[in-house]
Design brief:
CATH class: Mainly Alpha
Oligomer: single chain
Family: Belongs to the binding-protein-dependent transport system permease family.
Number of helices: 11
CATH architecture: Orthogonal Bundle
Keywords: Cell membrane, Membrane, Transmembrane, Transmembrane helix, Transport
Protein name: Carbohydrate ABC transporter membrane protein 2 (CUT1 family)
CATH topology: MetI-like fold
Membrane topology: Multi-pass membrane protein
Structural class: mainly alpha
Number of domains: 1
Largest sheet: none
CATH superfamily: MetI-like
Subcellular location: Cell membrane
Length: 273
């Protein structure tokens, strides 16, 4: 009786898991389904894309292609800038006896709790004086305010697990602090670097608040803001709107699939410490 009961419970758990997964993935399926339909209302869309049409993707690429490129450039720039700042900062907080390190870490945690609208409003006044409104460098700096603190926390948790003897051995062999950091610490921190880079990219790619506050022209407009304004223009042509949403989701999906093993290893290393 016990094996039969165990098998029944196993099937029940599997069915429940499949149902939960189906409910969670249904919005993604509906987005893809609507994007492959001829132009029209989403309410009238059939459950299966029997009459396929790629007109929505053609319209999305024509109207939103520039915004997609802008988002890619801003996201990549934010990742590079955040890691360049966060990696040495995390190394110093992890390996050096920095006076007030606890206060610095507490300040980093507090910065993560500040509402984004407060930061955006403060940056708008400063950007207006510095001429950084409607500029890609301005968006990179703004989005890095999210990426840098998170990257420091992720990187420091991993760097604490690196034995000090490894760095000392490099110093004995004649390497200076900078060379030991670049040649030894950075390669050993690959998993944490990929994890921090991935989450920074996702933060920046999905940003809407900074894009709405710090851009006022069409020359520099991330895809999130483009979709927002697209809905008001093409409210009766949901295939184009959903096609834009699908295209905007692809970079994040590809990066998550490619980097998942590095992310799992990086998070696990930090969690063990």
């Amino acid at each position: 009786m016990r094996p039969a009961v165990t098998q029944t419970r196993g099937w029940g758990s599997t069915v429940i898991g499949v149902l939960v997964l189906a409910v969670m993935l249904f919005p993604l399926y509906w987005m893809l389904n609507v994007s492959l339909q001829p132009s029209g209302s989403a309410v009238e869309t059939p459950w299966l894309p029997l009459d396929l049409s790629f007109d929505g993707y053609a319209t999305a690429l024509r109207d939103q292609g520039r915004n997609l490129v802008t988002s890619l450039v801003v996201s990549a720039g934010s990742v590079v800038f955040s890691l360049l700042v966060a990696t040495p900062a995390a190394y110093a907080l992890a390996q050096f006896r920095v006076r007030g390190a606890g206060v610095v870490l507490f300040g980093i945690l507090i910065s993560q709790m500040i509402p984004g609208i407060v930061v955006a409003n403060a940056l708008y006044r400063v950007y207006s004086d510095l001429g950084l409104l409607n500029s890609i460098p301005g968006l990179i700096l703004a989005d890095s305010t999210h990426g840098i603190p998170f990257a420091i926390l992720i990187m420091r948790a991993y760097l604490l697990s690196i034995p000090a003897e490894v760095i000392e051995a490099a110093r004995v062999d004649g390497a200076g602090q900078i060379r030991a950091f670049v040649a030894i610490v950075v390669p050993m921190s690959r998993n944490a670097l990929v994890t921090a880079a991935l989450f920074t990219f996702l933060f920046t790619w999905s940003d809407f608040l900074f894009a709405l506050t710090l851009t006022t022209t069409e020359e520099v407009r991330p895809v999130t803001l483009g979709i927002y304004q697209y809905i008001g223009t093409y409210v009766n042509d949901w295939s184009s709107v959903m096609a834009t949403a699908v295209l905007a989701s692809l970079p994040a999906v590809v990066l998550l699939v490619v980097a998942q093993r590095f992310v799992a290893a990086g998070v696990a290393s930090g969690a063990v410490k």
